[in-house]
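Reopening this one. Same input as before:
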Amino acid sequence: MVQSTPWQNLGTLLDDMAQRTPNRTLFIVERTSVDVPAAHYTCAEISVRVNQTAQALHHLGMTKGDRVAVMLPNDVDFPVVWLAIARLGAVMVPTNTGYQERDLTYVLSDSGARAIVIHADYVSRLRAVRAALPALERVIVVGASAAVVGEDDDYGTLLARADAAFVPAEVAADDLLNIQYTSGTTGFPKGCMLSHDYWLLLGQTAAHFMQLGAGEVDLTAQPFYYMDPQWNTVACLMAGATLVIMERFSASRFWGTVQRHGVTVLYMLGTMPFFLLKQDENPALEQGHRLKMIACSGIVPDFHHEFERRWKVPWREAFGMTETGVDLVVPLEDASSTGSGAMGVPVPTKQARVVDGDGQPVADGAIGELVVSGRPLMLGYWNKPDITAQTIRDGWLHTGDLVYRDEGGYFHWVGRLKDMIRRSGENIATTEVESVLIEHPAVQAAAVIAVPDALRGEEVKAYIILKRGESRASLPPQALHAFAAQKLAAFKLPRYIEYVDHLPLTPSERVAKHVLIAARPDLRTGSYDLVEQVWR
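Same output, byte for byte:
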């Protein structure tokens, strides 16, 4: 696979596909309501809508380099607006639809967004902070009545006035396209600067890894403000495939959607597989599909064989970051890695190695930090040159992930540099403890963090979401602790257990542990202390 593509930017890619396969279905939007049929959009229809949107934004004064925030739910409007911004040579700022006043203000202020395309459902939140955003000149509201739009711009009206004769700007491959804010683990998010070249190479690499070809069907259920649906869009454009967009992930409707649209490949992350696993087993529903592969990040090794048995499809690991796109994959043909915990080997456009604290490579089998180089790679962090210099050194991006490489060249994940617990001199990977806790049939989800302790340095605390119908009476802390003790060394067992109804999530569907840590001064409060045997 070469390290370049035939297209200079996302606009030329869309033009090419609209000319080659105008009648090919590019997007299918699967509605949440069973009473609303899925909506289908061809390449030609999307091209026209993209040009109209680009012209509308241009008439509002948006030009090359301007930042345009996009705060939309999963629907066709998000990729259309993104591709329109690309044609303008402008820069998209994907904005989490769950943002409230503080984080919304930060992202819009930090990016210097001149405009925002926002759904009517979120307008009240924006108006509450509008006075703190002097750079924000235009608000384009999607899906609203005239009363809701008020003095702002109505997206539907703008499209009705526009035509499809938009002449795109001159856009180079290395021009900035996204300021993609990472979910992060501490402090405010950082804006990764991602170019057209980044997205083109990421789409090409993803299509190659998933063996995505013409006539095939991909599916995404993640929010579009996260990067996965975006690279899925590019991969499908390139490969001649169709992308099914779920308005939101639904475990109960997932396999029906896969069957109904003949999905052949898809990508998952976060908690999704475990919500599916908790559903009642139904072979006719879960195995009557055309899937040839499910790509996933962070497959729990102890569940890997069960995933493949239950759903009769190969699951393959893929590792990447917003900063780097995709770095490591387990090839589809490598069934021997199932259950091994292997992250994979570098994709053809990347190099990877394991280094110590001084940045020196370590021997195979030794644990160190994963660093990567090659393409695609972010241009840097927006407005943060010092952090960029700390992260990218001598051409190598430091991921912050602790890994080791085996003799066969496969990398294995151990934990995060800042997501490890050191208890009485022992290092504990939080993910290892979490993977055991979620094996209990009454547990829906688990998150583990470190609690400061004067005697042991740090103690282990677990936040537990129980399945519907369960309670702390049916699964008391002592019972969960005894269950985990069958699988973990004593020093890894949680001392503190707290039952919660939900866990804060990052845009990538991972638990926002920094939110848990910042929630209260004493992290022991609200939990059961298994040493003292008291509720605190």
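So the earlier flakiness isn't reproducible anymore. For the record, The chain has a mean pLDDT of 92.
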